[in-house]
Every structure is written in structure tokens, then in C-alpha cells.
Amino acid sequence: MFVYFDNSATTKPSEEVIKAMNDALSVCWGNPSSLYGKGLEAEKLLKASRASVAKSLGCQPQELYFTSCGTESDNWAIKGVWEARKKQGRRMISTEIEHPAVLRCLEHLKKDGAEIVLLKPSADGKISARQVAEALTPDTVLVSIMHVNNETGAVMPLKEIRQALNAAGSKAVFHTDAVQSYGKLNCGVRELGVDLMSISGHKVHASKGVGALYVKSGLHLPVFMDGGGQEGGQRSGTENIAGIAGLGAAAENILKSRTETLERMTAVRDQLRRRILAEIPDIKINSPEDACPSVLNVSFLGCRAEVLLHMLDTEGICVSTGSACSSHVKGSHVLSAMGLKANEIEGALRFSFSGYNTLEEADYAADKLAQLAAAHRKLMKYHKG
Ligand code: PLP
């Protein structure tokens, strides 16, 4: 059996996405800026895809800019706000548990004089609106808080954070990295009250090489890439029509079946969690009870997660030891910020789900995990301490 439980790293493109991309490559391959029919065909597809993605975020098409990935969207949002607002204030508030796409940007801006405040998560990986309110100062220009954490699935209270910003009369721009929540939770930008939102195609069964940034109407970010004037002159470069068409198809699926997808994920996550808790001794669940059901993070005490990962791979099961992007970095900065002990971090595996996973897969993975964790612990001569 092949079980793909690493959907936070990337997802399998859906049939609808593959068809849309294939059509875009074989039919709509013109340049959308060209004035003849072949170009107009591509422009029409670009427009339709923008409308679909905008609808899935509850925004206007003109508030949505296509990018090459979630990382680019985060870079554009954060560096853009800095450039636009650094004369008004230097403080930027974020969290210790952001993805490196956000953390590295903030580090970069520190060298340019930004005052970066990173909020510490609670033991279950969450940030509260109160923490944000307490960190706010009149010269805070950006608050960037992820929606769902990629390692634990912890959901951040974006609506409450918006209320806290309003209550304080803050003029800070509110950005969220919604790369892990898009397609799972409601990412309506108006309901969440965000000014900027980053999403990525390959996490929602579209392809790599495409993402988007929502920019609230009236908020002016500096031009991200100069050139031929595509994307309203904000982000030049001939559009990745196939990737964008794929993201449009993925957005249509999200609009049609996000709730059912979430239900399927929840059933699979619950089954795996139930069986791990019942059948494997000495484990610690690191995802909070109310986490987004797309992620389950578990420490297998006495195990080295990387060894367990490779053992699972030989049985056809794909999981991760943390975020794939940071797999070369030692230890997880997220689990470490949550205060986990070294042995808990060393034994932590992330299981992440999509709507395509099944209960049979959860059962197969639970069976194999129980066998392999026991075998690995025996080799490690692990005895409950
Ligand atoms: N933000 C989060 C929370 C992520 O999980 C990821 C990827 O894992 C990214 C940003 C980067 O997205 P991309 O791979 O599209 O650059």
C-alpha cells in the first residue's frame, strides 16, 4: 500500500488541475499580452482563474496577484510593507513559529533597521490576540501571523487579532501566511480581517510554481518586479498560465467541496490519532486538540524520528520530521519554541492529510507505526524512564 501522509509538504495534483494545465499548455499557450486571438484566449483563461481564486478568498479579482509560490507572496508582503511604511514606524510583530519564508524576511529587514518582535507560542503552539495587543506600539507597521502552523496544525485567532488591532486603533498592516489553511479552513479575507494573505498552489493539489498574494484594495505596496507591466504593473513577467489555470481549477474544487474535504481529513486524522494513543506507548501528541485536521504531530519517545521516517518509507508510507523546507535544519524551531524537550523533538513525526486519504490508509499506517516504533525502540534499548 502507498500512503501519502505528507500533504503539508506538497500535494498530488488533482485530475481537474492536470486537465486544466494540460489544456492551458496545449491550447491556451499564447501570451496573454498579445492582441490577436491566441493571446486573448490565454488572457481569458487568466481572467477566469483569477476570478475563481478571488472567489475562494472572498475578494475582488483586482485584489489578487499571482506569484510563483507562497515564499514569494510572503517576501512581497513583508518587504513591501517595510518599504512602504518604514518612515512611519519600524516595529514589526510576528511569531517564533512562522515558516522560514516569513522569519528569514524579517531577519533580512532587521539589517535595514526594522525592530522585529517575535511572539512566543503557548505550550500547545498557539498565539493569542492578547499577546499581539500587548506587543503593539503606535509605530508598529506590520503584524504578520500565520493562519495554520505547518508543523502542528495550530490555528491562530486571526479574527480576534483583527479586533485587537482595531481596539488599539492600530494602523499596522495585517498579513497572514495562509499557505497551510487555504483549502481547509475558511480563508475569507473580509471575515478574517486581514490586509494581505499569502497562498500557494502546490499545497492545494495545484502545481509547484504558482501562488498568490491578496492585497486589500487601497493598500499600496511597492512594485515587486519591474518589467512589462503584468499583474497590474505590480509583478511583471509573462504569466505562468498553466500554473495559474491549475490554481484556478484547484480553487473551483475548494469552492465546491472544502467542507467535505475537511470532514474526510478529520476522519483520517482522528482514526490515526485514536489508534496511536491506544496502541503505542510513550507518545506525546504535539498538535493541539483544536488543530486544523490537516496536521497531526506526534513524538515517539525513545525513537529517532528520522530513522522511523525511513522505516515507514520502506513500507510505502510518506511522513515528515517537520517542515520539508527546513529538513536540513537541525531540530524544529516550532517544537522548540513550544518548549518541547530535546528527546520529544528528536522523536517527532508530522502526519499531514488531504481529502484523498482514506481510513484504510490510517489503519495501515497505525499498524506499521506500532510495529516499527517497537522494533526501533528495541534496537535503541529504550525503556520508559
Ligand atoms: N508558508 C508556510 C506556512 C508553508 O508551510 C510553506 C511551505 O511549506 C510556505 C510558506 C512556502 O510555500 P512555497 O513552498 O509555495 O514557497
What does this structure look like?
With 385 residues, this protein is of the alpha/beta class. The chain has two domains: 3-10 and 258-384, Aspartate Aminotransferase, domain 1, CATH 3.90.1150; 15-254, Type I PLP-dependent aspartate aminotransferase-like (Major domain) (Aspartate Aminotransferase, domain 2, 3-Layer(aba) Sandwich). Helices cover 42% and strands 14% of the residues. It has helices at 15-26, 37-57, 70-85, 100-110, 129-135, 158-167, 189-192, 241-279, 305-314, 333-337, 342-346, 359-379; strands at residues 3-4, 64-67, 91-95, 115-119, 140-144, 173-177, 196-200, 211-215, 283-285, 295-300, 317-318, 348-352. Strands 2-8-7-6-5-3-4 form a seven-stranded mixed sheet, sandwiched between helices. The protein has a three-stranded antiparallel sheet with strand order 9-10-12. A two-stranded parallel sheet has the order 1-11. Helix 4 (100-110) links the parallel strand 3 (91-95) and strand 4 (115-119). Helix 1 (15-26) packs antiparallel against helix 8. The longest helix has 39 residues, at 241-279. Residues 323-327 have low confidence and may be disordered. It binds pyridoxal-5'-phosphate. Residues 69-71, 74, 99, 101, 146, 150, 177, 179-180, 200, 202, 211, 323, 325 line the site of pyridoxal-5'-phosphate (PLP).
